[in-house]
Design goal:
The protein is mainly α. The chain has helices at about 1-25, 40-45, 45-75, 80-125, 145-170; strands spanning about 35, 130-135, 140-145.
């Protein structure tokens, strides 16, 4: 029994010593931490603004479509034709909404990825180990929001300039 206790104490001591050395090694390595105000970066993005405007225009198109559909249905007196028109317009409306939502989600995902890439690039260029959302951090961290906003705007301008050139090559 005494042998088991001594063995257990030796294993436990080795574990504690190993864990302590590991913690000392890790704690000696300072981490550079950055924070980014992501909503501020998103709201400053020209692509996000353009996407919002596009969504508003498409919403107006849907409203116009609905008004036309209501007029057509109201003008029809035959009950069967009225029901058929309602079903037709409902189906069309659902298809249009689905297409708009799909397009919006795809573009939003692309914008989100582009912003994430710029955040990662800024972090790497400035030697940061960790980047956190500013809203999560109570204190500390270097704020790189402005640098990220500038990088996002520069990348968006470069993308905007490249697109017309690519189209002109196809012609």
């Amino acid at each position: 029994m005494s042998k088991n206790i001594k063995l257990f104490a030796a294993v436990l001591s080795a574990f504690v010593i190993g864990f302590s050395i590991s913690n000392m090694a890790i704690s000696d390595m300072p981490s550079k931490i950055a924070v980014v105000d992501v909503p501020q970066v998103v709201s400053a993005s020209s692509q996000v603004m353009a996407l919002k405007e596009e969504q508003q225009a498409k919403a107006k198109e849907l409203v116009t479509f609905l008004e036309k559909a209501r007029k057509d249905v109201a003008a029809t007196t035959d009950t069967k034709k009225k029901q058929s028109l309602e079903e037709k317009y409902t189906k069309e409306l659902n298809e249009k909404r689905a297409a708009i939502d799909k397009n919006y989600n795809e573009k939003l995902s692309q914008i989100d990825n582009a912003i994430s890439v710029q955040i990662a690039n800024q972090a790497k260029m400035n030697g940061y180990d960790i980047v956190l959302a500013k809203g999560v951090v109570l204190y500390g961290g270097n704020d790189i929001t402005e640098e990220v906003k500038q990088a996002v705007n520069t990348a968006e301008k470069a993308t905007t300039v490249k697109k017309p050139a690519a189209k002109s090559k196809k012609r």
